[in-house]
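Hi there, hope your week has been kind to you so far. Thanks so much in advance, here it is:
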Amino acid sequence: MGVEEYIPDRIAGLSEKRGYTKYRLSQITGMTQTALGNILSQKSIPIILTLERICDAFNITLAQFFSEDGSRLDLTDEQSEILEVWDGLDVKEKEILLSFIRSLKK
């Protein structure tokens, strides 16, 4: 699969996993729905800065975006486990967990 197919497929897959609509992704990234639509329909390929904004919206790095299995690179087993659990939480559960983690830092 070429990059022109991979990028829109990956964005669509990540959006589905996170429950993001094109509208929601445009809000988070600050991009127009038209610009996102052009990327998703393979009418344009994003520049690196645009792709970084998209990755930020999904809380992943460029390396994670392009990793074959979507794995998180350079993490310990414990860090990977925490992120796997995180991915399965809903918004309210994530807020609670973040609040708890922040309280441990103080």
